[in-house]
User: Fold this.
Amino acid sequence: KQEVTQIPAALSVPEGENLVLNCSFTDSAIYNLQWFRQDPGKGLTSLLLIQSSQREQTSGRLNASLDKSSGRSTLYIAASQPGDSATYLCAVPPWGFGNEKLTFGTGTRLTIIP
Amino acid sequence: DGGITQSPKYLFRKEGQNVTLSCEQNLNHDAMYWYRQDPGQGLRLIYYSQIVNDFQKGDIAEGYSVSREKKESFPLTVTSAQKNPTAFYLCATGDYFRSQETQYFGPGTRLLVL
Assistant:
């Protein structure tokens, strides 16, 4: 059974710093890996989706990488801002299921200190 | 205004009562999903539906029921058999035939037990 882990559970950094969030998964047979953002009491917003054949994806100040062989993904946030404060979750669907049956990590709660 | 609507935002359940959470979408997506989120845990899949009049159990379907009579609607009933229903419930949609796309989430319903 796929297990997805995100460490640390919480992270605080001063505004302006670059930071990296980590996501590990146990089964490398994945269709893609997805990063989401969740603000308190809200739904999830998709940030980046990396196909299994890709190594990284970029969107603005965000860059996500994927290393299937080691079962790891990172989300790099450049020049952090207070508005980046949120919980970040990664999720993977098993191979052959497309986007069905996403398995989510427990998330990293990020606080950017002004 | 396109998107996913969940209602109510807060729902209170009495012992032995069934309650129904609404999820409506106008994204014309075929697939719809229900997740449960508990503090400190990732999202867990309750039920999903790929097409109208068809749905599948997720990882934690016991104590829940769904219907999919219309493409736009996927209501979730929390029955009295669900002994620990207090949680944040999220509905999501996806384009089943375009699996390289992510899932889109509604704003959520918080269910509390009186």
